Amino acid sequence: MDRTRIVIWSSNISVPASAMKATTGVLMDHGNLELRLGEDTLWQSFDHPSDTFLPGMKLSLNTRTGQQRGLTSWAALHDPQPRKFTLGIDPKVPGQTFFWKENAPYWRSDLYIGKQTNTAFDVDGENAPSSNGTAYFLTYNFDADEVYLTYGVSDSSTKLRVILNPTGHIELLLWLEHSETWFVWWRKPFDQFDFYARCGPYGACSGKNETLSSPCKCLTGFRPKFQKQWDMGDWLGGCVREKALMGFQRFRS
């Protein structure tokens, strides 16, 4: 509520009248806000993420019901209205994390295969301050009814958060105690060729080799669909086959 006791936000959960004065709100050390009735958790903020992904939270997809739990960007840094960027797990490709801009694919992660993938990354990135070997752990888990992504950190005193910001970037932020600022340790999309389908159908990014005439190339056996646009740096039209596929004629014996 604001100073005039007007409700600004509510967990929107039904509580029996007999329990109205028995519920408590608890903000946990790891950032989860829980509404409790005795020992039971009636509601928790980790189940309803907005633009921030904290260690211990899950981005998930229920493969049986189709229910998703993902991130949604704010309209601006100081305006929490949900806006056009979302991040979650695509039901069509449950082994990847997808980033959408107004329902169109914008970026996608690597493909995770297998029951569970645990990866440790040293927090000491390029230009980052020393963290004495602290690592964060990324887990992509496939259960019978649920696929989820979560992460943690080896040293609980290290403060990390992932944010989906209004400008269309996913950022992993590290809190620097000495300067009391958030350091951007990882960001995606990083450059123009991180974007989804940047080189169009049957096109592929050839890397950041500046000696190449074009950073996009057609797959073997394909050529640019629109050569003039391709030469001008517009690769979204992609590529087409150099030779049409020959059909098979059926013969009777």
TrEMBL record:
Source organism superkingdom: Eukaryota
Protein name per Swiss-Prot or TrEMBL: G-type lectin S-receptor-like serine/threonine-protein kinase
SUPFAM superfamilies cross-referenced by the UniProt entry: alpha-D-mannose-specific plant lectins
The keyword DNA repair belongs to this UniProt entry's keyword annotation: no
PANTHER family, per the entry: BULB-TYPE LECTIN DOMAIN-CONTAINING PROTEIN (PTHR32444), S-LOCUS-SPECIFIC GLYCOPROTEIN S13-LIKE (PTHR32444:SF246)
Keywords for the protein's UniProt record, in alphabetical order: Disulfide bond, Glycoprotein, Kinase, Lectin, Receptor, Signal, Transferase
Domain Bulb-type lectin intervals: 2-74
Organism of derivation: Prunus yedoensis var. nudiflora
S-locus glycoprotein domain: residues covered: 138-226
Gene Ontology MF annotations: carbohydrate binding; kinase activity
GO biological process, one term: recognition of pollen
InterPro entries (UniProt xref): Bulb-type_lectin_dom, Bulb-type_lectin_dom_sf, S_locus_glycoprot_dom
